Structures are given as C-alpha cells and as structure tokens.
C-alpha cells in the first residue's frame, strides 16, 4: 500500500486493491512520507473507506477534519462508531464519520472556551433512544480518555442523536423533527388516557418503535394503504378508549403535517395505545 497524499503525521490517503481511496491512520505514519512511498505496515492502526452516495473519493470536508483534528480524537470517534455498530447490530451510514468527528471537535472547542450547551431534548432522547443514549454515555468515557475532558450527559444525548441520524440516513433536522413529534404523541397518549405511562414496560418500548416508523414514513410522505376496513372497524369498536385518543392524534397530525392518517395507521396505533393503557402504570399525579 502506497501513499497518495499525506494529510498530517498521523493520517495519509492511499488506495485499496479496488483502486478506491482509503484513509490510513497510525501514529507517525505520515512523518517524512511522500506520494508514492510505501506505507510502513507496522504503523498502520486503522484503514477505512468513506463512500457516500456512490462517490468513492474522500469527502472534502472529511479531508479537512482529518488534517485538523488530533489523532486521539479521530481514534475516539472511530471507537465510538465501532462500539455503536456492535451494540446496535447494524452498519451506520458512512457520513457519521464526518458529522460525529466534526461535532466532537467543535464540542471540545466550546467547552475549552467556557461555552456550555444544554441539551433541550435530553429527556426525550433518554426515553425514545435508550440504546443510543447508553452508547453516548460510554462515548463520554472514550472522549475523556482521549482528551482529558469530562462532558456532562447532555453531550451523551447529542452523540445519541448523531447515531440515530446515521441509522435513518436522515438530515439532522428531520431526525429532530421525528423526535419532537414522537414526544408530542407520547404526551397526547399520556394525558388523553390520564395515566403515567410505564416507560420501562415492553408495551411502551413497542409503542415507541411503532411511532419511530410511523413518523419516519410521515416525514417522507410514505403511508400504509387502507386494505382491511373490516378489521379496522373491529379494532375501533373493541378498544373505544384507545381509539378516541388516536382520533385526537390523527387530528393533530393532519393539522401539523397536512397528512390524513389511513385507517390502517389508526388501527395499528390504536392497538399499541391499548397495550400501554393496560400495562401496569403509576396513578396519574394530576388526578
């Protein structure tokens, strides 16, 4: 493997056997190296490609980050991504390397300048994305080891949102919109049923998963078609309390997003609302 370009002492660009550009990281790997020279194998710590939307070239913004960000932070970013993919059991979109590295670098700069940013969606992130938040908390340990800086759990929430975004392959604004809408619907269910939802129950977890897919379809204007009206009518009659709650949600969704929920969407949501209604819960403190 030969050097195509030296970005800094610790990062070089090369090409793999398929002639795709790859990033090669390692301490001192670029020191006194020039294009065409053989890369010292013993110094190679990590090799990866960054292919986005079919473009095999290394993204310009990521090149800049590779040149500017210290190697320990780049390594920490890679370790966070590997931890997330292992814990979540899925590949994250390659763009996570750019967004997460950029975010971490900027977060450290802010903290060093005394600028503390609170995460206004921390509660929602904890409740709606518990696995990602757990990884975010583990990421804080990796970042402290790499930089010596301790972050508050607000930062774990920000990292979690980047992981959610990388799973959905979404624009971050869409991911935030999805999270806010799920929060609003959960609150409507809570107050519509006059109960404190048992957020540790399997029923609540299944509801949130259902809402994630529903809201994702809503954002992308992709809906479930109406195919079984007889079953819908049966569910509506069988679970009247849950259905009344879903009707209110439907009106809210139509008002906010100009989307009329189909009967199948309402039917599935009614089933999930009924399940959380029947799940063991604490008495509503408002009563």
Automatic annotation (TrEMBL):
List UniProt keywords, sorted A-Z. Answer: Repeat
Superkingdom assignment:
Bacteria
Domain PRD per the UniProt entry, residue ranges: 68-173, 174-283
> Per its UniProt record, what Pfam families does this chain match?
CAT_RBD, PRD
Does Repeat appear among the keywords? yes
NCBIfam families named among the record's database cross-references: LicT
Question: How is this protein named in the record?
Answer: PRD domain-containing protein
Species of origin reads Vibrio porteresiae DSM 19223
């Amino acid at each position: 493997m030969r050097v195509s370009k030296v970005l800094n002492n610790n990062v070089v660009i090369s090409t793999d056997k398929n002639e795709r550009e790859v990033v090669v990281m390692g301490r001192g790997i670029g020191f006194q190296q020039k294009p065409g020279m053989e890369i010292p194998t013993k110094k190679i710590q990590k090799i990866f490609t960054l292919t986005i939307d079919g473009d095999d070239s290394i993204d310009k913004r990521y090149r800049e980050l590779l040149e500017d960000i210290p190697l320990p932070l780049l390594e920490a970013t890679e370790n966070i991504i590997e931890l997330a993919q292992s814990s979540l059991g899925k590949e994250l979109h390659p763009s996570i390397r750019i967004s997460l590295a950029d975010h971490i670098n900027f977060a450290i700069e802010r903290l060093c300048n005394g600028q503390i940013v609170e995460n206004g969606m921390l509660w929602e992130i904890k409740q709606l994305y518990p696995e990602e938040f757990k990884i975010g908390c583990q990421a804080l340990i990796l970042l402290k080891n790499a930089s010596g800086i301790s972050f508050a759990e607000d930062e774990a929430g920000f990292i979690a949102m980047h992981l959610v975004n990388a799973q959905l392959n979404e624009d971050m604004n869409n991911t935030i919109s999805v999270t806010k809408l799920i929060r609003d619907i959960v609150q409507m269910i809570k107050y519509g049923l006059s109960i404190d939802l048992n957020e540790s129950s399997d029923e609540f977890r299944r509801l949130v998963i259902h809402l994630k897919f529903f809201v994702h379809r809503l954002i992308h204007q992709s809906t479930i078609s109406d195919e079984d009206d007889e079953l819908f009518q049966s569910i509506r009659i069988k679970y009247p309390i849950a259905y009344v709650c879903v009707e209110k949600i439907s009106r809210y969704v139509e008002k906010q997003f100009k989307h009329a929920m189909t009967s199948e969407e309402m039917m599935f949501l009614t089933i999930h609302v009924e399940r959380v209604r029947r799940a063991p819960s604490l008495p509503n403190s408002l009563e």
